[in-house]
Amino acid sequence: MSSADKPLIDKQVIEEACEWSIMHGVAFKNSDGTARHCPFSIAPMTMKHNVFQHIMKVTPLLTKLISRVSEDHLFLQSSLTEMAKADQFFERLMAIHKEIHGVDGEQTFPARQPLLLMRTDYMDDRQQGAKVIEFNGIAAGMGPFGQRITQLHQFMKNQWPEVYTDWVEDPASYVADNFCLEQLAEGIAHGAHKVKAEFDVSGQPTFLMVVQRGEDNVYDQHLLEVALQGLGVRTLRRTFDQLASELYTGENKRLMLKGIGAIDLVYLRAGYQHIDYFAPALGEDICCQTLSQTRAFIEQHNVALNATISQQLATSKTMQMILTMMPEQEFSRWGFTLEEVRLIKSVLAEMLPVNKETIDWFSSRADKTAWVLKNQGEGGGHCVFGEEITERLSQLKPEEYGAWALMQRLFPHERERPTLAVRDGEITKIDDLISEIGLFTAYFNGKPVAGSEGLVGYLVRSKPAKENEGGIHSGQGILDSITLTD
Q: Can the peptide bond before residue 307 be classed as cis, meaning omega within 30 degrees of 0?
């Protein structure tokens, strides 16, 4: 066989790596009930130790900030009014927020206990260093996959050291430890046990995961459930459709589930998009009212909850823009020192509201390659780039401006060596891989739980630089992990 015909990597290595992935739950569920492995890199990326340490230091501060903003209900309502008018989904969320917390200074205090499980996503820009892409406060998933892919890369290093050395970005780098699955479970179990202890009853605490209909990302969720079961927590799964008719109120504002009993913690892996509340069989006059009211019902009970409506509002793109543009002194509202604020500001990329002035500026003078246009949507497909921004801005009506924001586009380091992506058992050589690093944190009732200062682990998703959509489900994203170099 000539060198040109020689495979990039032995077929058996790929087969065993894919089998390891499925065996350890790093997989998606197919419509026929079978499983396929998640796409992954054959060896990790490398990050400068000082850059990694900086985002590790700042991220707990960001979580503390979002935690405090999310409980500043008058600030949320006054700051996000225009955005809620411009985005139908957030209009519904704001209506529920006002129902739960009151309006115009007449605050009410629901019984729920907030559990903030947040993923802060970064890219390491070539010129400006690591900057936040977005905050994820609801359905911030794939933490378990983050730990598992770190383990897969160590498996590769131990089993096939030559292959690993050939494809790792820096053979002299060392692994960035990642215990995201275990520590997320610890944070959740802490909240569940705390709530149960308030009722002074025996037995296991009960955890309820709210999931989407026909979910294919079940294994990431089941990994977390298995870890919770190991910590003495009973786990359940329900859709909003099911909960609409199964939840009821027990004594002392206890949340109850028909056929089960008391619920101590509710964790939403659904609820970040309109379709999660869409129930055509109900024939509603107001779309999604019944199922979204289920969230309002949950918040009126003494239950640990991720995500609260206020957490979802506080991690919106518009709130990210408001905090980015806010003068340093105004952060004293939430008890931050100037030193802390400057650390926070060091990772916030420039953002601008969409209005007549910014549209005129963008169309006539801006470097169109230096910006990205974002709406409030979660997941892929909600960003507009380059010349397409001008076209989209020209199509917007003034009443729609509040749902959009311009953000400085980040140009992260490309991996210095080619790497191999494994998808559906096949390999692809990629010469320009870039990475997005998500750091997970856990706060319960405004205080860090698990990990160091609430920092519990990370998730890396990499993609070719030329690809705009880097999702693992869709697009060209692959799971990755981090090694560090000095």
A: yes
CB atoms within 10 A of CB 158: 9
3-state SS, residue 268: strand
pLDDT in tens, 1-11: 444 455 789 99
Phi and psi angles of residue 136, each rounded to the nearest 5 degrees, phi first: -120, 110
Q: What Rg, from alpha-carbon coordinates, does the chain have?
A: 23
Separation in Å, CA 443 to CA 210, 226, 410, 412: 19, 21, 28, 29
**CA distance linking residue 44 with residue 55, whole number of Å:** 19
Q: Which residues contact residue 205 at a Cβ distance below 8 angstroms, ignoring those fewer than 6 apart?
A: 189, 192, 193, 195, 196, 232, 233, 234, 264, 265
**Distance of alpha carbon 65 from alpha carbon 323, whole angstroms:** 10
User: Are 318 and 83 a contacting pair, CB within 8 Å?
Assistant: yes
Confirm if 404 and 396 have CB atoms less than 8 A apart: yes
Phi–psi pair at 22, nearest 5 degrees: -70, -40
Round to whole Å and give the CA distance between 400 and 7: 52
Residues 483, 51: contact at Cβ < 8 Å?
no
Strand partners, 478: 462
Q: 400: buried, middle or exposed (CB in 10 Å: 19+, 13-18, 0-12)?
A: middle
- Band (pLDDT 50/70/90 cuts) for residue 107 is confident
H or E element in which residue 98 lies: helix 88-101
Q: In what order do the strands lie in the sheet with 371-374?
A: 351-353, 405-408, 371-374, 383-385
Give the list of residues 6+ apart from residue 104 with CB closer than 8 angstroms, or none: none
For the chain, which residues make up each domain, given as ranges? 11-349+418-485
- Encoded tokens for 222: 């089941």
- What is each CA distance from 151 to 144, 157, 456, in whole angstroms? 11, 10, 16
Strand 113-125 vs strand 265-268: parallel, antiparallel, or unpaired? unpaired
* Largest Cα span, the chain: 78
What single string gives the DSSP state of each residue in 112-126? -EEEEEEEEEEEEET
Q: What is the rounded CA–CA span in Å between residue 45 and residue 185?
A: 26
> Strand, coil or helix: what is 13?
helix
**For all residues of the chain together, what is the average pLDDT?**
93
> What tokens were used for 339?
């030193």
* The one-letter amino acid at 214: G
How many other C-beta atoms lie within 10 A of the C-beta of residue 359? 18
415-468 pLDDT, tens per residue? 989 999 999 999 999 999 999 999 999 999 999 998 899 999 999 999 999 886
- The answer to whether residues 468 and 385 touch, using CB atoms and an 8 Å cutoff, is yes
* Beta strand spans in 280-369 (E): 304-306, 351-353
